[in-house]
Write a structure and sequence with these properties.
The complex is a heterodimer of chains A (372) and B (410).
Chain A (H helix, E strand, L loop, with lengths): L1 H6 L4 H4 L4 H43 L4 H50 L7 H22 L2 H11 L7 H15 L4 H9 L1 H6 L4 H15 L3 H15 L3 H14 L11 H5 L2 H17 L7 H13 L29 H4 L7 E3 L10 E2 L5 E2 L1
Antiparallel strand pairs in A: 2-3
Helix pairs in contact in A: 3-4, 5-6, 7-8, 7-14, 10-11, 10-14
Chain B lengths: L1 H15 L3 H21 L4 H40 L17 H14 L3 H25 L16 H19 L4 H9 L1 H6 L4 H14 L13 H11 L8 H9 L13 H4 L4 H16 L7 H26 L8 E5 L27 E3 L5 E3 H8 L3 E3 L6 E3 L4 E2 L3
Antiparallel strand pairs in B: 2-3, 2-6, 4-5
Helix pairs in contact in B: 1-3, 2-3, 4-5, 6-13, 7-9, 9-10, 9-13
The chains are: A mainly alpha (372), B mainly alpha (410).
Organism (chain B): Penicillium steckii
GO molecular function, one term (chain B): ubiquitin protein ligase activity
Protein name (chain B): GID complex catalytic subunit 2
């Protein structure tokens, strides 16, 4: 009995391993949001305060109240006013965004909080909670695989929009799709928006994107385009000389090759596969920046679960007696034996057991089968 | 968790009480009034400008102060999150053995959606999968004409047949639960009478019994003391119960015997049958189970069970991972997890046999063997103990020959 009790005890603190991104992501978004507020304020402050001082000095020195200076003062003030109005508008939208993020966080915390009120894994409430979690994991998986429409529909039908990050992933998906189409614009724009955070990233996404632009210019073999390419390289690539020297040399080398060359590394550089590489790199950078795990959480949960449930009998050559047990009120079909997961679990290790688990009053039939 | 909640509440409060916008507005007001002053009275330009700098700086300071406050709130909240998730690293990719099995996972998801009754989501999902696949195919074809054909043939997304089956299951369940209409379920169980009987299922009888009780109560939910519509019930019994024959005779006798107590069924020995609050729930559950098992599926969504079991197992597996990393040991048993994960009893679906001698789990290669005395050990242990001849059972004084041991199937 004691063993039974420990096996169904629910430890909420360790149970939420899978739910880290649930709170981390909105927090990261909130921090980013805050940073842009801060930057906007700083920019205006740096402009307005020194200008005011300057004007002050100016008017003190000149003492002349000529028409021109006065008009100038007025126009500077007008300029300041319009800038401040712009700041206000910007801050209003940012604050709205922050409110949205924080109410979302609130709901997520509440969702995790309910887990703390559930005493055991056998509780009906745990079942409900776990179903919501599965829906979340499914939506997460769909979003990552690019099935945005299904993800949206599922989230809506289950009413869990606040618990999943539709917006973030859909934006990511848009950029990925644009990269697959061979466009760098949206990805570069994203880089621009996240410049500060990207500095810490070990992947040099922006450089790779600029390099791709360069490659596209060289590809055409058009003389003017080539000159453009050199200018482009000077502007965007050479600035990274310290870290990317080798790549820059290669890029320079490309100028004398055509795109159907078979000489490495130029063939790889010219290859259209590079777009795939870029979109993968973008996903990686994007997820790292927002502290999202690189794998869909569903995969992690499933691979742990499949192993925990699997027994040697699930893929045994002999049909197990207990899996197709015919008692109508007895145990249901094992999930690993069920057709949906059987193939998936084939390569997984099976669970370790140190004790036998056999129903109490089993009988061995003459053919060697155990009836329980 | 409490700390996280507290810090987040603080963040929210601060957000609501934020003065930033007000301060920005006051800066605007100051600048505006200065501008108006100058415009109205040009001679005041110098004086106004001289007075302008300090208030503007002051209001900027105010803005920055309240920003700083927000920032420290956010920081504290972040720290509380760090604390909550300390020692609980994000599950790393090492635990993910499924990344190249996308196809199978998607199939499992589609099946899950279908069996949960989310037909429209499932349809969208399937069409998005096919869209993406055809897109990929096109891309590959346009790039090179290499072996594309056999790359994408492995899709076994649920056939329309299964989709139809689930749709009919949800129709029956809906009728059963919402409209208390047992007839579609009874009809289904009649159609599948043989396969149900092969499974030893009582579903058809359970359904008919409920229908009988339901008729007796005159199709109302509240069991009443007043004599119900016994005629309808008895008529139904005459019509239907014959086919159940000898197998359910005792049950049928009970049902009809109850009629003798009509004025006071609640006080009779038959009250339990007639006053069962979970009857409808039970019947729909056993219907679902039977329906799914005839399709070769388990009653609960396997995806749900596996994901839940995974969440229960993860803390242990993660701990194992860190220990293995720290000690630089490798996981030696390739086919078996190195730790025992205690799942709730309802997650045990098979009998498990662990050899009491070698402490190994029985497998196809190493099956359990029963000695004539009735004790069971694994085949390898048997071979090792007996060395091909007579030996004593490790559990009792009986001696036997290894030839006499029989393979058993759990």
């Amino acid at each position: 009995m004691a063993a039974e009790l420990t096996s169904i005890k629910l430890n909420p603190e360790s149970h939420i391993i899978l739910d880290q991104p649930l709170l981390r992501l909105p927090n990261d978004l909130a921090r980013r949001n805050f940073k842009s507020v801060q930057r906007a304020v700083e920019r205006e402050e740096k402009y307005i305060l020194p200008t005011l001082l300057e004007m002050n000095y100016g008017s003190l020195l000149e003492e002349s109240e000529s028409e021109s200076t006065q008009e100038q003062t007025l126009s500077t003030l007008d300029n300041m006013l319009s800038r401040m109005q712009g700041l206000k508008r910007k801050m209003q939208t940012l604050q709205e965004e922050e409110k949205r993020i924080q109410t979302q966080s609130r709901k997520r915390i509440q969702h995790l909080e309910t887990l703390h009120k559930i005493p055991t894994l056998a509780d009906v409430k745990y079942d409900q909670w776990s179903r919501v979690r599965l829906d979340r994991l499914l939506v997460d998986h769909m979003l990552r695989s690019g099935y945005s429409e299904s993800a949206k529909q599922l989230a809506e039908e289950r009413g869990i929009e606040d618990l999943v990050d539709l917006g973030v992933f859909m934006q990511c998906q848009r950029v990925v799709e644009s990269l697959r189409r061979g466009e760098t614009k949206e990805a570069l724009q994203w880089c621009g928006e996240n410049k500060a955070a990207l500095k810490k990233s070990q992947h040099n996404l922006e450089f790779e994107l600029r390099l791709q632009q360069y490659i596209e210019l060289v590809r055409s073999q058009d003389q003017t385009k080539k000159i453009e390419a050199i200018a482009h390289a000077k502007k965007y690539l050479v600035t990274n000389q310290e870290t990317q020297n080798k790549e820059i040399m290669r890029a320079a080398g490309m100028l004398v090759f055509t795109q159907d060359t078979r000489a490495e590394p130029y063939q790889t550089l010219f290859s259209t596969e590079r777009w795939k590489y870029l979109s993968d790199l973008f996903i990686k950078t994007h997820h790292e920046l927002l502290s999202l795990p690189s794998q869909p959480l569903l995969h992690i949960a499933l691979s742990a679960g499949l192993s925990a449930l699997k027994t040697p009998l699930c893929h045994s050559a002999h049909t197990s007696t207990s899996s197709n047990s015919s008692s109508s009120m007895g145990s249901s079909v094992c999930p690993i034996c069920s057709t949906e997961l059987n193939d998936l679990a084939r390569k997984m290790p099976y669970a370790h057991h140190s004790k036998s688990y056999v129903a109490g009053d089993s009988i061995v039939l003459p053919n060697g089968r155990v009836y329980s | 968790m409490d700390l996280v909640q507290k810090e987040h509440e603080r963040v929210l409060r601060r957000l609501k009480a934020s003065h930033v916008l007000k301060n920005v507005q006051s800066t605007i007001d100051i600048l505006q009034s200065a501008r108006d002053n100058i415009a109205a009275d040009p001679s005041q330009t110098a004086a106004t400008m001289a007075k302008l700098h300090n208030p503007v700086k002051h209001s900027f300071d105010n803005i920055n102060d309240s920003l700083k406050e927000t920032h420290s709130g956010l920081n504290k909240y972040t720290k509380s999150l760090d604390k909550l998730f300390k020692d609980r690293p994000l599950p790393s990719s090492e635990l993910d053995a499924l990344s190249n099995q996308e196809q199978l996972i998607n199939r499992a998801i589609a099946m899950h959606l279908l069996r949960e009754g989310q037909f429209s989501v499932a349809a969208t999902f399937l069409s998005e999968i096919t869209d993406q696949k055809s897109m990929l195919e096109e891309e590959i074809v346009s790039r090179s004409n290499l072996q594309t054909s056999n790359l994408f043939n492995i899709d076994e997304v649920p056939s329309t047949e299964i989709r139809k089956q689930f749709a009919s299951m949800y129709y029956i369940l809906h009728e059963l639960k919402e409209k208390r209409n047992l007839l579609p379920a009874i009809e289904w169980s009649r159609e599948n009478r043989e396969s149900l009987a092969a499974r030893g299922s009582n579903l058809e009888f359970e359904l008919c019994r409920l229908q009988y009780v339901w008729l007796y109560y005159n199709k109302s939910l509240e069991p009443t003391d007043s004599p119900g519509n016994w005629q309808a019930a008895v008529n139904y019994a005459r019509q239907e119960f014959q086919s159940f024959g000898p197998r359910y005779l005792p049950e049928i006798q009970k049902l009809l015997g109850a009629m003798a107590f009509i004025p006071n069924i609640q006080g009779s020995p038959y009250a339990a049958t007639f006053n069962n609050p979970t009857a409808w729930e039970d019947v729909s559950q056993s219907f679902t189970r039977e329906f799914c098992s005839l399709l070769g599926l388990s009653a609960d969504s396997p995806l749900y069970i596996a994901a839940t079991a995974g969440a229960i197992a993860l803390p242990t597996l993660l701990k194992l991972q860190t220990i293995m990393k720290a000690k630089r040991t490798e996981w030696t048993t390739e086919n078996e997890l190195p730790v025992e994960i205690s799942l709730p009893p309802s997650y045990l679906f098979h009998s498990v046999f662990v050899c009491p001698v070698s402490k190994e789990q029985a497998t196809d290669e190493n099956p359990p063997m029963m000695m004539p005395c009735g004790h069971v050990i694994a085949e390898e242990s048997l071979k090792r103990l007996s060395k091909g001849g007579r030996f004593k059972c490790p559990y009792c004084p009986n001696e036997s020959h290894c030839k006499d041991a029989r393979k058993i199937f759990l």
